[in-house]
Structure formats: structure tokens, C-alpha cells
């Protein structure tokens, strides 16, 4: 098990991969030969030879809906030192965002990735901003070298699911 997995598990956080609603995932400006599957899906994202690559310019906009409400704690974004992401904005519960309106909304958090972060180091987010997340939009604004292509080898999201209270169950207890 990698150090990043151990660190995340020790904090009680889990890889949220199992809670992604795959039919709703979208990625704008991806090279169809190097799609988001390569960076997000189990097995693909562990393969050093596979990656998500931008198409027309360096920007990528990734929308990830979840099958249940989650709390997002940290993110791992892995990429090469040259063309890996640098400026990343994260938006909780913002749907139908495009490159034309991404700057209309304040991000829930903004991170600037260093070459060291791109080796697979978890970046802790402003946890208070990610308490009831139904979807996450990741806007990769630029890359390390300022080139036209951004490559992302892995994106992993760590957090917990939000336990929902069964109100019917509470009602029955009160009746007794």
C-alpha cells in the first residue's frame, strides 16, 4: 500500500471512487484518445502509461457527480513535472459549468500544485467547504510549463460519505 493511501486511511478518509456516478461524468476539452477514464478509473489511473490529456489548449473541466452525498477531505492529482496541472479550482455542487462561465462563480477552493504535489501527494482542501457534496467540478486552468497540453495521470478523491438519518426509524421509536 502506498504512503498516500495509508495517510488517507489513517485520517478515516476513503477513496471515493466507489461513489462516483460514472454515467454522469463529463470532461470538456479532453483528447478523445486520452480521456478522463485514464485518470479517474481504478486500474487505469495506476498505469503510468495512461493519462488524461487536454485537446485544444491547456485547460480541462471535469464534472464528477456522486451516487450519494460525500464530504471531500483531500485530492491527489498526479502528473508529469512539465505538463502536469498547476492552477486548479474546485467547485462543489455546481452543475452545467463551461469554459464560458467558469469564472462567474467563486471556487469552493483553489490550489496551486507544485511538482512535488504532482508525484501523488494528497492536498488537503478547505474541508468546511466540502461537507455536503453531490457533485464536484474540477477546473484545471493551466499547467507547470505553460504549454498547450496538460496531462493528468491520476485524480483520486478522499473523504467520507454523509450518513443520512432515517426519519421513519425515529418516528417508530417515539411511538413506543
What features would you describe in this structure?
This protein is mostly beta strands. Helices cover 12% and strands 32% of the residues. The chain has helices at 3-10, 37-40, 167-175; strands at 14-15, 26-28, 52-53, 60-78, 87-92, 109-112, 123-124, 133-140, 151-152, 154-161. Mean pLDDT is 90; it is low at 4-10 and 170-176. The longest helix has 9 residues, at 167-175.
Report a brief summary of the structure.
The protein is mostly beta strands and 176 residues long. It contains three helices and ten strands; from the N terminus they run H-E-E-H-E-E-E-E-E-E-E-E-H.
Regions with little confidence, pLDDT below 50 for 5+ residues: 4-10, 170-176
Mean pLDDT: 90
The tally of beta strands, per DSSP, is 10
Output the helix-strand order: HEEHEEEEEEEEH
Approximate strand percentage: 25-35%
The biggest sheet, with number of strands, parallel, antiparallel or mixed sense and barrel status, is: 8 strands, antiparallel
Q: What is the percent of helical residues?
A: 10-25%
Question: What value does the Rg take, in angstroms?
Answer: 17 Å
